[in-house]
């Protein structure tokens, strides 16, 4: 029996009725009077010099109210391309018109003259000397050259001794790595622990592979949208579909040089985000510029096609990885070299390459990662950014090792998993996390230990780790004369977080969940809140709400103490009333009575304040098992079973937690088996749902979720962030299951039927 | 652009409108009539977010030109609950956690309502295929199917 009455219980969400009746207001549902429709004019070339932009024909179209280019950005910050475009779909101008179809027509009438330049869209081509230089001529050294160059620099700095002999030897050594000069590098990240060369030398088995993970789109169902309204005083109001209204406010301020207090961002109900809804320039800034120019509200809404060509998807990646282990199953060393396809913007996710270390005791680890510019749109976060890619490589290769040494993949993982206090390679020591409990739970639930596989059937397992973020937040809780409580805060609800905040508040105030209501303010009114991404909301806003409710709780006892003339030590808040402890006959006063009484006291109404920013969070593990059947003739893989467990710390709303596990697992499944942004000679060639297939209910079986609870010391009630972990292992889970079914390892995602057929052919089928 | 007279019955209300021939039924519902519960997710008929019921059939309203819908009876998500009472499908989506961000939900609910009107005796597998024209990116579909099966049971027992 739980000691809690509201947290830990499945409850209907606070926004339930508005979500099922169509009443919820999403970005595109905002329609202020006199609103104009914006349309962004986009490059039709993936790489070109811009010779001219001619807007004269478009200006003549009846209904067009404004056309803007980079010349209309007073701050000079880059919003539109001017002399050069770097990808198909890059914004060049924007139009505002009285009707969306007129805006689209006007956009088509704007004539752009291009001088086409050579295009590079493959990371491994982009790093070569022969590739066109996209953003700078600078070259970077690869891992071996990097070490030698560092030694040369060190010796050269020593002016007291003559190192010329050593230096010339080292310079000769550099020549041994001619392929390790990389071009078009946008960022790099390196980490090392122990001595990998020594580790590989001591290993009985060393496996080396290259894994290729495609660029995929977050594919939130609501395309990017904003409505901006600039009034004559200079005040700008933006209705934004975003995960972080405060980040959008500072982004607009920084980009356009508008004072922070002159911008109010109203977060609208969000139609999915998954990390992709933090961008400022995508729609918000053009909407503000168009509104400033026309003096009318303007809506800028992306189409699905625009989402694919100019969204900020998850980066693709090529990872060369090498692992060494002993014959009795001890992993000794791992080395990884990753090239991330950053597109036109520097380096999202590359730091996550370190996730190849997994949750294992790997004494020797070396990770080198590079972000590479290509002629594609920039990338951004997608649910545990970078982790699914790195973990796909790491967990696929673990199965190859287990296979070579003849160990069961679950036992092999359990044997190598870190325990509390173990050192983490290139990290701090391990806290208590339910790694083994979570893997054992999924193995038991899936029937792994007595699994059976028919012809062309296979089983796969993988685990993925992720640690929730933490950020600043503020919450107020007021208690009213009817005994109800009202929460006021500024964080975007991300599929159930407002419900979680309400549950925690009800729990502390000992009132029913139904007696709590919650209101999100805009950036003009609400206390600052961190963006709803990085699985931060439960951890941050949960803790903040708890502090606010506890503050209200203190005031309630103080009021009761005055009212009942009793010391607070003799009082307790229970079932929505303050009781005198061990009073006979019982004596109590309800919250409503205290709230009414508070209105005429010196101390005033019951308002609890919570403010929170930083506490250490604890890693979480997701473990999954899939059973698949592959049709050897068509190459089609059918999922027969998909079981997902997760150490969530503590499930505040179990139904919502299951929903996160199920949804994240299916996104991982899709990345493994279906999704891939494809690029032809001139940019993205599959910008729609017919060619970029995401799963439907017809593609999948029921996902079975298993909740494991090993409390996080600093989480509210022990809770961890639950949104991101479930996507991390699924890519490898699926690849490992397919390998088990067909006997061939597919190292390049997605595992489309044609790849399976090809793999089977290469294996003599 | 020349406009054409279009008469629609939407959720029981009659609307006599003058509409450009390029406007879709979705655009008319959202921009002209102001019923924004129906969502635009792709504009190409692939995601199902704009599903409404036209003369008893589930239709992706982004693929219907408004002028061709004249004289038809249309039901949108706003018209589904009657006398403040949620439809069993709506209630089931709440009870099972069949929605997360909620953007695809109106489309799923309208598509499910038609399936239940036609035949509530489908198996889970049949419902999975029948709902294959609607995309949800949040739930992984497990709880949506739970909702539809629960609503089907409700419809069967009360029918």
What is the CATH superfamily classification of the largest domain in chain A? Aldehyde oxidase/xanthine dehydrogenase, molybdopterin binding domain
Q: What structural class do helix, strand and pairing data of chain A support?
A: alpha+beta
**Which spans of chain B of ≥5 residues are poorly predicted at pLDDT below 50?**
none
The CATH homology group name of the largest domain in chain B: Beta-grasp domain
Q: Roughly what is the average pLDDT of chain A, rounded to an integer? A: 96
Helix content class of chain B:
25-40%
C-alpha end-to-end distance of chain A: 56 Å
Structural class of chain B: alpha+beta
Provide the CATH topology of the largest domain in chain A: Aldehyde Oxidoreductase, domain 4
What radius of gyration of chain A results from the CA coordinates? 29 Å
Number of domains of chain B: 2
Query: What is the 3D shape of chain A?
Result: globular
Biggest interface and which pair forms it?
A-B, 59 and 61 residues
Multimer state: heterodimer
Q: What order do the helices and strands of chain B follow?
A: EEHEEEHHHH
> Average pLDDT of chain B, to the nearest integer?
97
Q: In CATH terms, what is the fold-level topology of the largest domain in chain B?
A: Ubiquitin-like (UB roll)
End-to-end Cα distance of chain B, whole Å, is 49 Å
**CATH class category label of the largest domain in chain B:** Alpha Beta
Major sheet description of chain A: 7 strands, mixed
């Amino acid at each position: 029996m739980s000691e809690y009455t509201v947290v830990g219980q499945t409850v209907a969400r606070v926004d339930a009725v508005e979500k099922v009746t169509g009443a919820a207001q999403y970005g595109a549902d905002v329609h202020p009077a006199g609103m104009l429709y914006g349309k962004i004019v986009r490059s039709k070339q993936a790489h070109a010099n811009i010779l001219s932009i001619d807007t004269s024909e478009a200006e003549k179209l009846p209904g067009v109210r404004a056309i803007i280019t980079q010349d209309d950005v007073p701050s000079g910050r880059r919003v539109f391309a001017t002399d050069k475009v770097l990808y198909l779909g890059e914004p060049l101008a924007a139009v505002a018109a009285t009707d969306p179809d007129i805006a689209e027509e006007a956009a088509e009438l704007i004539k752009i003259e291009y001088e086409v330049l050579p295009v590079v869209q493959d990371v491994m081509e982009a790093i070569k000397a022969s590739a066109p230089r996209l953003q700078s001529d600078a070259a970077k050294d690869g891992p071996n050259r990097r070490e030698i160059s560092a030694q040369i620099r060190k010796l050269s700095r020593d002016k007291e001794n003559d190192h010329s002999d050593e230096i010339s030897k080292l310079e000769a050594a550099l020549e041994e790595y001619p392929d390790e000069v990389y071009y078009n590098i946008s960022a790099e990240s390196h980490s090392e622990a122990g001595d990998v060369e020594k580790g590989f030398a001591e290993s009985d088995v060393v496996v080396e592979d290259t894994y290729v993970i495609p660029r995929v789109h977050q594919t939130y169902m609501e395309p990017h949208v904003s409505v901006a309204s600039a009034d004559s005083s200079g005040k700008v109001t933006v209705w934004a579909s975003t995960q972080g209204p405060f980040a959008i406010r500072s982004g607009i301020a920084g980009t356009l040089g508008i004072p922070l207090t002159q911008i109010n961002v109203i977060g609208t109900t969000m139609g999915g985000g998954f990390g992709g809804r933090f961008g400022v320039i995508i729609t918000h800034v053009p909407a503000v510029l168009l509104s400033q120019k026309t003096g009318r509200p303007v809506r800028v809404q992306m189409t699905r096609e625009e989402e694919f060509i100019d969204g900020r998807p998850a980066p693709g990646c090529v990872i060369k990885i090498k692992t060494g282990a002993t014959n009795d199953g001890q992993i000794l060393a791992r080395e990884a070299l990753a090239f991330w396809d950053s597109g036109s913007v520097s380096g999202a996710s590359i730091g996550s390459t370190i996730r190849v270390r997994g949750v294992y005791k790997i004494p020797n680890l070396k990770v080198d990662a590079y972000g590479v510019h290509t002629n594609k749109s920039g990338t951004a976060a997608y649910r545990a950014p970078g982790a699914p890619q790195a973990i796909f490589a790491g967990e696929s290769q673990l199965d190859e090792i287990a296979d070579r040494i003849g160990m069961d993949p679950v036992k092999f993982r359990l044997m190598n998993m870190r325990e509390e206090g173990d050192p983490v390679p290139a990290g701090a020591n391990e806290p208590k996390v339910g790694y083994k409990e979570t893997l054992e739970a999924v193995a038991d639930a899936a029937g792994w230990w007595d699994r059976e596989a028919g012809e062309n059937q296979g089983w796969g397992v993988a685990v993925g780790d992720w640690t929730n973020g933490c950020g600043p937040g503020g919450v107020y809780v007021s208690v009213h004369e009817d005994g109800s409580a009202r929460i006021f805060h500024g964080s975007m609800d991300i599929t159930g977080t407002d419900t979680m905040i309400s549950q925690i508040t009800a729990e502390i105030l000992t009132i029913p969940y139904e007696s709590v209501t919650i209101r999100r303010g805009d950036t003009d009114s609400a206390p600052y809140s961190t963006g709803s991404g990085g699985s931060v909301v439960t951890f941050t806003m949960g803790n903040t709400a708890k502090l606010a409710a506890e503050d209200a709780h203190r005031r309630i006892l103080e009021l009761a103490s005055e009212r009942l003339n009793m010391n607070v030590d003799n009082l307790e808040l229970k079932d929505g009333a303050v009781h005198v402890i061990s009073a006979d006959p019982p004596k109590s006063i309800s919250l409503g009575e205290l709230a009414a009484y508070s209105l005429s006291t010196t101390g005033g109404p019951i308002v609890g304040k919570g403010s929170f920013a930083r506490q250490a969070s604890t890693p979480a593990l997701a473990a999954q098992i899939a059973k698949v059947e592959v049709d050897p003739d068509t190459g089609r893989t059918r999922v027969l079973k998909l079981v997902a467990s997760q150490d969530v710390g503590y499930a505040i709303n179990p139904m919502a937690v299951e929903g996160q596990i199920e949804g994240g697992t299916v996104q991982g499944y899709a990345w493994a088996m279906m999704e891939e942004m494809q690029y032809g000679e001139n940019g993205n060639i599959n910008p729609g749902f017919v060619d970029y297939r995401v799963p439907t209910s017809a593609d999948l079986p029921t996902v079975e979720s298993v909740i494991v609870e090993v409390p996080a010391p600093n989480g509210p009630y022990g809770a961890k962030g639950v949104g991101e972990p479930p996507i991390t292992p699924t890519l490898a889970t699926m690849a490992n299951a397919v390998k088990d079914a067909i006997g061939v390892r597919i190292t390049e995602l997605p595992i489309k039927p044609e790849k399976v057929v090809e793999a089977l052919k290469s294996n003599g089928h | 652009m020349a406009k054409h007279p279009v008469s629609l019955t939407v959720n029981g209300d009659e609307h006599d409108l003058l509409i450009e021939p390029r406007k879709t039924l979705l655009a008319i519902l959202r921009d002209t009539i102001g019923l924004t519960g129906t969502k635009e997710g792709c504009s190409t008929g692939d995601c199902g977010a704009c599903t409404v019921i036209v003369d008893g059939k589930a239709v992706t309203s982004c693929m219907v030109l408004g002028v061709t819908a004249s004289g038809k009876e249309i039901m949108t998500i706003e018209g589904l609950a009657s006398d403040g009472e949620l439809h069993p499908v709506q209630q089931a989506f709440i009870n099972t956690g069949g929605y997360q961000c909620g953007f695809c939900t109106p489309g799923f609910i309208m598509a499910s309502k038609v399936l239940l009107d036609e035949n509530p005796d489908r198996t889970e597998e049949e419902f999975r295929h029948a709902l294959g024209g609607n995309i949800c990116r949040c739930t992984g579909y497990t709880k949506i199917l739970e909702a539809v099966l629960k609503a089907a049971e409700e419809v069967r027992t009360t029918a």
